[in-house]
Amino acid sequence: MASQPLYDVIIGGAGPAGLAAGLYAARDRYKTLLLERNGLPGGQILLTEHVENYPGYVKIGGFELVEQMKQQVLRFGAELAVNKSVDAITRQADGTLVLSVNRGKAAYQARAVILALGSDYRQLGVPGESQMRQAGKVSYCATCDGAFFRDKHVLTVGGGNTAVEDAVYLATRFAKKTTVIHRREEFRAQKVIVEELYAAAKSHDVDIKLPYVLDAIIPTPDKAAIDHALIRHVNTGATETLAVDGVFIFVGMNPNTGWLKGLLPVDANGYVPADPRTMKTAVPGVFIAGDCRQGADMQLVAACADGVAAALQLKAHFRDGGAWSADLESDEPGNW
Ligand SMILES: Cc1cc2nc3c(=O)[nH]c(=O)nc-3n(C[C@H](O)[C@H](O)[C@H](O)COP(=O)(O)OP(=O)(O)OC[C@H]3O[C@@H](n4cnc5c(N)ncnc54)[C@H](O)[C@@H]3O)c2cc1C
Q: Any idea which architecture 6-120+253-323 has in CATH?
């Protein structure tokens, strides 16, 4: 493997948390590299049509915000490498960390690492889901795919904030009819968002069915479209078929931390515990930031704040690497 320059800090993941960490690290004159597995930085915010809750912007497109964040971090000298998926970290005898990328095709060396890996959409795993996803008939992102279902009947699954918000978005902007199901008697979403859904149901064709689950998505014989969805009442077990054109599944996120198991303590849901003030993990020199951190607020500004908090710890860490104290209760090994 060709020898690599030693970076002060390498940031795994160039979503909002990674970009914010990169901005602070590079502006502090640390030699900084961001490694991003996708072809573009930005993470989940790229999927967002408009952001209205990032301080300083009344309303800004997700893509535009990412572009500004990217320019800002590059302006201070950070390097950004895309299509680079980090898949392992090892420690050298001299204490530096080596990140393996794209299954060992490249390696990068750093004095500290900030992992800002974010999350991916959770799937239900029902029959027909992945087949119809490939056909473009199952989606996990209303902003990305809503426009493909203009004047169609869509089914939404889930009861959290995103689920209810996106059901309203689909119902009021695109769909001819929206059926909304959730497995509990009540939505988990904030009251104000649920009220928006019921308000939308007065002016648009919205059918809210509680408590229902999705059992299967049945394709047409040529597998190009959905023939119908099979839903079931949770209490009575009665099943119904719905002739829908698309299914939007909003049942949460999976943190992109699968490869960390064995390297770092990871909780049952895949989130990495860290000290919430410093973002220190159980492993000296490895910080975690953003949506993949246990207890993260799953918001853009909070992810940025995590990245900043981690970057601000670099100075103290470089001054006295031996002073790393994991303020964590985990007794899993973390001293590699
Ligand atoms: C549709 C949608 C709308 C949203 N709207 C809002 C909103 O209006 N306001 C708000 O505050 N929040 C919003 N959010 C949430 C917000 O986008 C997230 O909280 C935020 O993006 C989290 O930032 P992050 O950097 O932690 O993770 P992510 O944005 O998930 O970024 C993580 C990055 O790491 C990369 N990565 C993952 N694994 C690896 C690896 N092994 N190697 C290299 N790179 C890797 C990913 O490709 C990704 O680019 C929205 C989210 C979605 C999906």
A: 3-Layer(bba) Sandwich (3.50)
